[in-house]
Structures are given as structure tokens and as C-alpha cells.
Amino acid sequence: MHPVITLFAFTGLLAAGKGLDAESGKPPAAPVPEAAETKVVSVTDFGAQPGGSALQTEKLQAAIDACFLRGGGEVRVPAGTFRTGGIRLRSRVTLHLLRGAVLRGSRNPEDYFGYLTDTVEPLDPDRLITASVGRPARDPERDNAFIRKTGNRWNNALIRALNAENVAIVGEEGAMIDGSDCFDEKGEEHYRGPHAIGMHNCRGIILRGYTVTNSANWAHAIFFSSDISAENVAVVAGHDGIHLSSCDNISVRRCRFHTGDDCVAGFDNNNVEVRECELNTACSGLRFGGRNVLVENCRFFGPAKHLFRGSLSPEEKRTGVASPSGAGHRYNMLSAFTYYSDFSLNVRELPGNIVLRNCTIENTDRLLHYNFSGNETWQKNRPLRDIRFENVVASGVSMPLDVYGNTSTPVIVELKNMDFTFRKGFDAVSFIHACNYERIALDHVTVRGAGKAPLIKTWSSGKVELKDVKCDIPEDRRVVPAAEKFYSRPI
Questions:
Q1: What is the pTM assigned to this prediction?
Q2: Domain 28-131+139-236 class?
Q3: Most buried of 60, 70, 281, 442 (most Cβ within 10 A)?
Q4: How many angstroms separate the most distant Cα atoms in the chain?
């Protein structure tokens, strides 16, 4: 039984008060007047105008700063397209995109460094946001200190929040945050630009009602934060839909992710719910790791509506081309759930108690990809203890469930009330490839479209429980030791 995840309450979002200093966490030196009531300002009051080619960055920022210095409140963006570089959201400020409001990011990556000259909450660009990551001396991969460095360009975003509390971005019908596929040859993989929304060290985050499109890197990049609610948010094209790492108390509900990269991603996350979401991608529906994770009433489906942008040519990346068709462009959905735990960050608790319940999964290459064999950088930190699929209908799958655990922490995988169908022409594929497992339990599971390969191929001993399993594979071929060496194609 999955434990009840207590939903946190967001309070004081628009309450009066004083902002926290970006580095010390203490009130700023400058006096901040107490607000007697919620403050509402419009960006047009500070000279921001929609349309045209001029960036409105400074005017948008001025509206946010004024609201913050008055103790917090709401900054409204009216209908129209406002071109902008990077802006910084602050404590107790709600950025409210009214109906038809569009924030369109600059395609010049140098327009996203405004925080370096921030006088309201000054930042030390060389300071690490968190302490050093403890990684094995013999594993230099994925150190990635840049993730934790305030002033690194990888952390740039169209909307950024640092060391803030009670912040919100809400949108009405037609509200959009457009990253413009900003190309950055100095960025990740020599083409990815700023994230659409980036948040570090924040508490009390509300994201609701808007669409992110063409994000130059992740649509939402959230680290070291807690009490996060994303609801009725859509992400179209771009890269990861929402990527959270080292975060606690997360609710993602009724969101639509049609992405080129992972829909919901990240690791070292505790107390997470993903409910009633639509996940369509050219990578993984979830590339995720954490403890107490519930995924419920979600639909995963491929092929992707938008390609994985890494498959574009250098010129296509530079020009920000939309999703083309043709050879060499990848649209297949790799996996519904891929485990994630690398050495870029510490993992505070043993990952496990992950449950996928009442979900439909269509046309993904894999249903589950957990490969702790050592050939994947992304799965090398702390291993997964247990995962459970319950009341799941999966169809159009072409590869086995990878269940490769760790010798010191053998994995437990439970499948209950599952209807599973292989893609046509893949009847020679096993249902599960398993190694270093404590227990694999199939209870009321139907596997269709298989028959020429064992149901479960094993590379180690462990307990296998089969109860009311229906398939065309004879009893003596249900669990068979593998003769060949284990190999799983990395994702």
C-alpha cells in the first residue's frame, strides 16, 4: 500500500512581509515597508509595451521589483507579446499572465544575465548554491558543479527565482511562455540555451494555467526546493517538461507534456505525486528517482508529437527550426519509466516506494528501464529499492522490462492487474530481463503477443512469484536463466 502523501498548503503567497537576502537568508538592509493589503501592479505601469522588436526586460523587472519592495503582491501581464531576456521573480510575488499574454524570450543567449547586476537582491555569481557533491573518486562523470553555481550560464532562464519563498506563475487562457528555441553555442551540447523557468532554493512554488513552448532547454528546472505545485500547465516541444532534483513535497496534476525530451525528470526527490497528466515524448515519460513517488491516472503515449532536438542538424538547431519530419529525426518514445540517479547531486534517502497506478501506456519502446549494471552514467548513484505497477494497461511495447538491481540492494518489482501487449512483430522478446532482484511478483498479469522467448530471463537468483499469469508461453519457459551476457541499450 502506498502511504498517503500529505498535500502541503501554500499560505502567505500574497501576504505582507520582508524579502530574504539572496545569500544570507536574512532581511535585506534596505527598509521594506509593510503592505496593508495585496498590491497589484501592471507591467504597463512601468512602461512595458507589447509588440515590436525591443526587449522589455528592464520594464518587466521594474514591475516585479516594485511589487517585492512593497512587501509582495501580484504583477499582471496583459494580452500581447512582450519580448524579453531573463527576469528574476522574487519572494511573495505572483507573476500573473492574463488571457492572451505572451512572454517571448530573446534568441540572444547573452540577454539572460541580468541577475549579475541585480541591486535589489545582489548575488555572488561564483558562489555554489549548495555544498559540494560527494562522488566516488574513481567516477569523474557527472560532477556538474555548474548546476549548483549561481552565475553559470547553464542556470540561466527566461524567468528565474533564487532563495525565494511563496512565488507563483499563473496564467489564464492563451497565456504562454515562449523560449524561442534560443540557440547558444556555448551552452549544453553546444546548442541549448536558457531554461524557460529556473528555480533554486525556493519554498512554496505555485505554477498554474500557462503553456511553455519551444524552451531552449528545460521548461522547468527546479532544484533544492520544497512545497511545489504544478497544475494545468502545458509544455509543447523543447526539452524536459518539468525537471526537479533534490526537492521535497511535489504535486504535478492535470498537466500536459508534449515534449522532445523527458516529460517529468529528476532525482533525489521525496514525497511526489504525478496525477492525471498526459505524457508524450521522444525520450522517457518519467526519468525519475526518489522516495514515496505516486504516479496515478496518467496517460503515456508515443510516438512523440515533437522530436528530440538532439537529432537536428547543427544548422537546424541554430535557426530554431520547428519539428521536421524525415530520416534521422527521432520521434519514438523510449520508455514510460526510466530510473534516474547519477552523481551530479547527493541522494539523501534510499530511492523506493515508487508506484504507478491506474495508468495507460501506448507505443513506448519500454515500459520500465532500470539498469544498474554499470553501463549507464544516469544510473550509478544510489540504487532503487522497489517499484510497483498496479492496474496498468500497456500496449505497443517492443522491448523487455529491464530489472537490473544492485547486489547490495536487490530490487523488488511488483506487477498487479496488468494487461500488457507487445508491438506486432516482437513476439520473440521476453517480458522481463532480471538480475540482482530480491523478488519479482506478477499477480493477475496478461501478456499478449509473446511466445517465442521466455517470459522472464534471469541473470541471477531471486524469488519469482507468478499468480494468475496468462500468456502463450508454456510453464517450463516462464522463468529461464539466460545463457548470454546481460546487455541493455542505454537511454
A1: 0.90
A2: mainly beta
A3: 281
A4: 77
